[in-house]
Write a structure and sequence with these properties.
The complex is a heterodimer. By secondary structure, chain A is α+β, with helices and mostly antiparallel strands. Helix content of chain A is 29%, strand content 21%. Chain B has an eight-stranded mixed sheet, sandwiched between helices. Chain B is globular and about 80 Å long. The chains are: A alpha+beta, B alpha+beta.
């Protein structure tokens, strides 16, 4: 039995969308249009400003803020969402968070406010660092101070988790559109073989842009969210294996606990925003193969591998081989990414992840980097130096690596590596920075690697410095 | 306290947080509403040969494709003067210029069809920099010099002399709610326009001009904006005019809501500036003579560049005095979007000049910049207390705000601590910087300093307040309501705050130049006083006293004073007035007194008063990457006797952070073809919560009621504190040991400045 109508819970009530509803209509357009719930605002339609933040209520009680502009209706099937209109108490009165935000001068123009209230409602349960929580919400009026004060005093309202149905296979049809929602890997692979031109949609934080911002209406979509194999996440002593559709939020939570992954966790905490991490996936980062994908340099530095599958079978290849060029990867037309295996660094490895951008939070890297050094005494035995944003694709820097290997990690070796790096990378000039700046930064990061190694524990970046 | 001086929250705060507050795009659309989308030029400069619209016309849902030929009135949306077409004719002058508009059943259909319109443009060489435009001598505002004394002679006679040049970038408003208008045609040529605008009257005029009708056929309404910051002053007008044109052409309601991308491409921004100056000074850092050119990038058309240049020139010395001075201001014409009003309106750009002069001269003299600035303060020993254009400034307040900010910031202690840190840390450097401001309040165009209000008291004692000011989040509506509360002695919940409408108050000024409360507060006050006077007469008769003995307080009307037991409820009195056939409705009007300006001589008294403020900021810089962060800011801001300290604090904090964005992370980037490439929040970075100084001490200057007769002796606060963010740029110079820095000081500019310093 294949479901044909999109159904989800909205503010605690089950809704079933009429047949023919476009499964790629954004949740935002649906809320503000057919659902007549205009409390959720459109600020940018590119998942960056957070005015459209709503919350996915997970079956385990987790509250996942997401950008309604990037979330497509077909993705929501079987899920539960809450909007600003759904926060009122049983008596119809405002939620304590709504009251607190109003009474603390946390609003001026009020346009960003519903999104910030929803982020706050999620944060009240999820906790964590406040700027990390707010990174996905821009406010142009207040200067944030009163909002931060409210965030510091949030209390969870202990509202119950929704009861969600078991995933069911579904195919939603609309004029000129098919949206497949398989629930097994074989079904997914069969669909992929039959529809090689379809969008493979997991979190949709990249593809969603094509709908929300570019107003595309894809003819065919295969949604990965219902396939359990793609959601497995396992930590073994030697490696972490992450299904391709595991959200960054889940990865981040695991990385924070797993030995050796703290630097990667710190980087992931800056990938997009909570709204992006709630939906975005490693599989997606690999699938788009963007030269500035935040997660790619660490995957390269860790020596991660990708498992891909098709009806023809399965193969495993290193990330370095998977990435083929500017937004190009090694996937055949019938293949999908199933999982990523991230080897655990040795306890003695020096492992560092860096991201340089105009703004610390929710920005795209001007230069991204991940470095891993395996030391033998004071000598560098092996080096993995990977960069993003300085060439057509994320890649290792073999000449710089060679300059380090076999040498003591000192200023001279680092200077030699920095010089060699100029031959490894080919940065461009754009709005994020000039080629000259990118090279200087990439070289500066090697210097910082040296200082990090020689002065463990020293605060070396401005964001970590506590006044 | 309920009335003036109370820290009441924004009247819509709870509606904002519950999502009930309705913005222009939130109202349910009337059946048959159509949607419009603009066709924008992809070319910065060229001859428009043809516009091919056949494909678009054939697309699903398309009702009309409209261009310049479809305009019944004038193809002119100029805010000042004339000659700014709604749709380009013959010549394309910037990438993003509207060429035509598609009207369709849905917004998506309109957007798709707009993308299918093909413009045939023969490219011409675009002028994309201020330098190039200066070479070509092409201006939208020709150079004009404000001079006093003989600057050239003073510079030549001075013991030391310096020349310099620097740049400051523009800024996108990034109001969270983009530009939008909904136009609904009525009978007899009427047009009702719901617009997100700071200037309903101008929307009305421009719509009438484009439709070829009179103002009385056009009603413009605005309940609230999702942010304005100057960006919805002139730019809202053409968006509304386009919607109205489409409504007229189709006979149906039409909504035009710009996408963020279109908004960022097609609407004006803060003016970028180029500065060139020559100064003569002495070894003590006293500036003896100064000649400067402040060249704004006006973009392709005039818009409001004249006013921006006026404010830049009149604020170029900021809080300082130079006896012999010649400041030349102009706005060049380039093939970029027409730059427009943005919070501060040229004032912040003007003030950057003196900061650059102070910092470079301080470095040359081996003195702290704070010392040099203070030696040049208006009213400092040997310095005058009058601006070059002849207006007296309160030097004592300049000295006072700086002394208090310096004290609050623990300046001396932290100087030592920072030096110790910098001496030991391998890569990070901290720095301390300051700013002192003197900002003139009033519109530079004298006739704009007027406001109207309309107050009704109903027979049940409820009050309806309307005025010409618009609400964009700044808390104007609650402040003006507080004024009315104070007049009638009633609680705020008795007053209905209503949408701004050209049908209720005509011929209004924009809500801009920080003047919203000053002007509309007085206008509402005057309206309320008129009604109160009439009510007092009725009360006096009933209470058997004289009208002068009637006191309005605590929602009652008392004989003589509060405490006496002879009183009427306010509602009871209103009912009585109605029965006595006494009018309970009044308009109120206000015009700012004592201001004048002579454009020819560039002298006068253009500002009703000055607002003062000072700030100290500390930053930390990574010398390997140029990344930086503001760690602490201490602010002392003069608000006179604040009408609402909570609202004023919000304005100070918000303006500061917005200024921080302008000077640090917000960078507009045009490619070599003149196309803006930072066209969304993913590429254009405004400050996020982490960018706010973690230690952020904001204090209103105490015991300093305005010396001019402002409403309750309060002072304007919308714009001045934005200048305080210059303290962050100054702190960055201090941290990396340079005396000058082009702005915005992105990590790249900081790292390059470090590299250049060697």
């Amino acid at each position: 039995m294949i479901a044909t109508a999109i159904g989800f819970q909205l503010n605690g009530r089950q809704v079933s969308l009429p047949p023919g509803t476009s499964p790629t209509l954004s949740l935002l357009d649906w809320l503000r249009g057919p659902a007549a719930l205009p409390g959720t605002k459109e600020g940018c339609a590119e998942g960056d400003c957070g005015a459209c933040t709503v919350v996915l209520e997970a079956a385990d009680g987790a509250r996942i803020p997401v950008n309604a502009c990037l979330t497509l209706l077909g993705q929501l099937h079987g899920q539960a969402i809450r909007t600003v209109e759904g926060l009122r108490g049983p008596d119809g009165g405002p939620h304590p968070i709504q009251r607190a935000m109003a009474e603390s001068d946390g609003t001026q123009c009020g346009f960003c406010t519903p999104g910030i209230v929803m982020t706050a409602w999620a944060h009240a349960r999820e906790g964590g660092e406040v700027h990390e929580a707010l990174a996905g919400n821009l406010c142009r009026c207040t200067g944030y101070r009163p909002i931060l004060e409210v965030f510091a005093t949030l209390a969870d309202d202990a509202s119950p988790a929704p009861v969600l149905p078991a995933p069911e296979a579904a195919c939603f049809e609309a004029p000129g559109q098919l949206f497949h929602r398989p629930v097994t890997l074989p079904a997914l692979l069969a669909l992929r073989a039959a529809h090689p031109g379809a969008w493979l949609l997991a979190g949709g934080t990249d593809l969603g842009l094509r709908v929300s911002d570019h107003r595309e209406r894809p003819a065919e979509v295969i949604c990965l969210l219902g396939v359990p194999d793609l959601h497995s996440l396992r930590a073994a002593p030697e490696a972490i294996e992450a299904g391709a559709a595991v959200s960054y939020a889940r990865l981040l939570a695991l990385f924070r606990q797993e030995a050796g992954f703290a630097p990667f966790a710190a980087l992931l905490a800056r990938l997009g925003s909570r709204q992006i991490r709630g939906l975005g996936t490693l599989g997606g980062n690999l699938g788009t193969a963007s030269p500035i994908g935040d997660a790619l340099p660490p995957l390269l530095a860790l020596g991660a591998s990708v498992t891909v599958a098709s009806v023809r079978g399965q193969r495993v290849l290193p990330v370095a081989a998977f990435l083929k060029g500017y937004r190009m990867n090694d996937l055949a037309a019938d293949e999908v990414v199933v999982s990523v295996t991230l080897p655990r660094p040795d306890p003695d490895d020096i492992f560092v992840c860096e991201k340089i951008s105009k703004r610390h939070d929710q920005d795209i890297a001007t230069v991204g980097a991940a470095f891993r050094l395996r030391m033998k005494g004071e000598v560098v035995a092996e080096a993995w130096l990977a960069f993003g944003g300085v060439g057509p694709m994320a890649a290792r820097a073999p000449r710089a690596e060679a300059a380090l290997v076999g040498r003591r990690l000192d200023a001279g070796a680092v200077a030699a590596a920095a010089e060699a790096l100029a031959e490894d990378i080919a940065p461009l000039s754009d709005w994020r920075g000039t080629a000259a700046y990118r090279l200087m930064v990439a070289q500066g990061l090697l210097q910082r690697l040296h200082i990090r190694a020689s002065q463990p524990g020293a605060v070396l970046d401005v964001a970590s410095y506590a006044p | 306290m309920k009335g003036m001086g109370a820290a009441l929250r924004h009247d819509s705060a709870l509606k904002h947080t519950t999502g009930e507050a309705r913005f222009a795009d939130d109202a349910a659309e009337a059946a048959g509403t159509l949607h419009a989308a603009l066709v924008l030029s992809d070319v910065a400069h060229g001859s428009l040969v043809a516009l091919h619209t056949e494909a678009a016309r054939a697309m699903p849902g398309v009702v009309a494709v409209l261009g310049p030929g479809d305009i019944p009135g004038a193809n002119d949306i100029a805010a000042v003067g004339q000659g700014e077409p709604l749709f380009a004719e013959g010549l394309v002058e910037f990438a993003g210029q509207p060429l035509a508009m598609v009207v369709a059943s849905t917004r998506d259909e309109a957007l798709r069809a707009a993308a299918a319109v093909r413009a045939e443009i023969t490219p011409l060489e675009p002028v994309l920099s201020i330098e190039r435009a200066l070479e070509l001598d092409q201006h939208v505002v020709p150079p004009q010099t404000m001079a006093r004394g003989d600057a050239a002679r003073a510079i030549a006679a001075a013991p030391r002399r310096m020349e310099a040049e620097f740049r400051a970038g523009g800024q996108e408003h990034f109001y969270l709610e983009g530009q939008i208008a909904l136009a609904t045609p009525g009978e007899d040529g009427e047009m009702a326009v719901l617009s997100s605008t700071q200037h309903p009257s101008e929307v009305q005029h421009v719509v009438a001009r484009v439709l070829g009708g009179a103002s009385n056929a056009v009603t413009v309404t605005c309940r609230r904006m999702g942010g304005g910051f100057g960006g919805k002053e002139s730019n809202a007008s053409w968006v509304a005019a386009a919607a109205a044109l489409a409504a007229r052409a189709t006979g149906r309601p039409v909504k035009l809501r710009l996408s963020r991308r279109a908004d960022m491409i097609a609407t004006g921004k803060r003016h970028p500036f180029l500065y060139r100056w020559t100064a003569g000074f002495d070894d003590q850092g006293r500036v003896l003579g100064l000649q400067a050119l402040l060249a704004a990038d006006g973009g392709w058309s005039l818009d409001m560049s004249g006013g921006v240049v006026f404010r830049a020139v009149t604020h170029a010395l900021n809080c300082c005095d130079v006896a012999d001075v010649a400041i030349t201001g102009c706005a060049v014409k380039t093939n970029t979007v027409s730059h427009t009003a943005f919070r501060g309106f040229g004032g912040p750009q003007g003030a950057l000049l003196m900061e650059d002069v102070v910092h470079r001269i301080a470095a040359a003299c081996g003195l702290p910049p704070e010392e040099v600035r203070a030696r040049n303060f208006l009213g400092a020993p040997g310095k005058g207390e009058e601006t070059p254009y002849g207006q007296k400034v309160e030097g004592d307040l300049i000295t006072r705000v700086w002394a208090e900010a310096k004290r609050d910031s623990e300046w001396d202690r932290r100087r030592g601590e920072i030096a110790a840190f910098n001496a030991t840390h391998p890569t990070l450097r901290r720095g301390l910087g300051s700013m002192v401001l003197a900002f003139g309040i009033s519109f530079g165009v004298m006739h704009m300093n007027q406001a109207g209000a309309l107050v009704h008291v109903y027979a049940d004692g409820s009050i309806r307040l309307n005025h010409g000011g618009t609400e964009m989040g700044q808390g104007l509506f609650v402040k003006v309501a507080q004024v009315v509360c104070d007049v009638f002695g009633v609680d705020l919940d008795r007053i209905a705050i209503t949408a701004t409408s050209t049908a209720e108050v005509p011929n209004t000024a924009p809500t801009a130049a920080s003047t919203g409360s000053d002007l509309n507060g007085w206008a509402a006050h005057n309206a309320a006083e008129t009604i109160k006077g009439r009510m007092a007469e009725v009360a006096a008769k009933r209470l058997g006293i004289s009208p002068e003995q009637v006191v309005f307080a605590d929602n009652r009307v008392w004989a003589e004073r509060v405490g006496a037991n002879l009183f009427l409820d306010f509602g009871e009195l209103a009912k009585l007035c109605f029965l006595e056939r006494v009018s309970l409705s009044s308009t109120g009007f206000y015009r700012t007194p004592d201001i004048h300006w002579d454009r020819a001589t560039m002298r006068g008294h253009p500002f009703f008063y000055f607002s003062y403020g000072a700030a100290v900021s500390e930053v930390i810089v990574d010398t390997l990457t140029g990344e930086h962060r503001c760690l602490r800011t201490d602010i002392v801001q003069d608000c006179g006797r604040s009408l609402n300290p909570a609202v004023d604090r919000g304005q100070i904090e918000g303006a500061f952070v917005q200024g921080q964005g302008w000077l640090t992370c917000e960078e507009l980037w045009w490619d070599t073809q003149g196309r803006l490439r930072t066209i969304g929040p993913s590429t254009y970075k405004i400050p996020g919560s982490r960018d706010v100084p973690p230690i952020f001490n904001v204090r209103l200057l105490e015991g300093a009621p305005a010396r001019s007769e402002t409403i309750f002796r309060s002072k304007a606060v919308g714009e001045p504190p934005l200048l305080l963010a210059i303290s962050v740029a100054n702190a960055l110079k201090d941290a990396i040991g340079v005396e000058a820095l082009d702005l915005p000081a992105t990590p790249e500019r900081v790292l390059m400045a470090l590299a250049a310093r060697g």
